[in-house]
Amino acid sequence: MTTSGFVNDTFAASRLLSYSSDAPFLDLDYSRRLLFQIQHPNCFSWNTLMRAHSRRGSPHWALLLYRLMLGSDLVPDNHTCPILLQASSLRLGGLEGKQVHAHACKFGFDSDVYVVNTLVNMYSVCGDLEDARKVFDFSPVLDYVSWNSILAAYVQAGGVERAVEIFDRMPERNTIAENSMIVLFGRCKRVSDARKVFDGMGVRDVITWTAMISCYEQNWMFKEALEVFFEMNREGVWLDEIVMVSVLAACAHLGILKEGELVHGLIIRAGLDAYVNLHNALIHLYSSCEDIIAARRLFDSAGIVDQISWNSMISGYVKCGLVEEARKYFDAMPQKDVVSWSTMISGYSQHDQFSEALELFNEMQMESIRPDETTLVGVITASLRLSALEQGNGFMLI
């Protein structure tokens, strides 16, 4: 390339650099060498390579290249700052981000709406909501992305009052903002507020419906979650695996197998039955409703089973009173977590096998598994009942 004189053609060299940076099969070392061979690399060339490093998970290189660019007496443009701010976000580098912010002001890009939006996002990701809000409040130009960005920051942080303030002030609400508020209200147990936003929406997408269903499910309003789901289905909205998991959880909590089987049929018709999380949700549904045969059929037919699958089977057998079958699954489980141990210990305790519960708890301690509240309830119950039985047997002997 050097012998051809190609590096002297800045436009052609920049295009080649752009291609090499975007090509996933080429190492960025090659792109850097190419940049340093260009006689007079322009801002586009530097931006291209900085963006590539940021996208490929090397934000430190993006920031280093910026310093080299400044050292070449080249002035950044309005595309440079957003690239560097995104790199700072990846590094969670608040200090680096502030330095880039200072440069944006120095070069007059602080009134560019794209730069403003990236600044709001960078400060939000770095956990600095105060500076994110300052950028937003003092910006002379705002668009719907600006409003969505600051709203998303408050939603992410759980700042419900600030989020409501921004939402109420929005010049024009959009589906993204409304969906965010439903999610936040659901998280904060303000279900009626979430429903008010939902009912007032002119356009609902699949995320809207999923958020409303999840809101009800998170707040133990399973009947209402199912009502929204069936309304969603009547509206002909595409059903994805996320909403199906929420609905199956609602059916499992209510113990309504008939509706669960209907949802199972919808999953098969939608071609979603290959998803592991849906398989787990279905196993949980059938085991919770004590249809252990259907649960086992699903477990055996699954291509991939994880801890959730195993735990659901153990829980299902325990619920059906088949504690020895549950123990077989427990023993066969490749990797046990605290839920596995707790379910099995509680199962023994619930079915009056108190010695087995305490023996298993001792094994759990030897495995250095930290017990949770469910474990301790099972162990305490087993200890008290076993002690009472031993005392009773003592009286019988007297």
UniProtKB/TrEMBL annotation:
Q: Is Repeat tagged as a keyword?
A: yes
InterPro entries assigned: PPR_At4g14850-like_plant (IPR046960), PPR_rpt (IPR002885), TPR-like_helical_dom_sf (IPR011990)
Q: Mind telling me which Pfam families this protein's record contains?
A: PPR, PPR_2
Record has Repeat as a keyword: yes
Write one Gene Ontology MF term: RNA binding
Give the transmembrane ranges.
none
- Give one GO biological process term: RNA modification
List the keywords (alphabetical): Repeat
Ranges: PPR repeats: 42-76, 143-177, 205-239, 306-336, 337-371
Report the leader peptide range. Answer: none
Q: What is this protein called?
A: Pentatricopeptide repeat-containing protein
Q: Which organism is it from?
A: Dioscorea zingiberensis
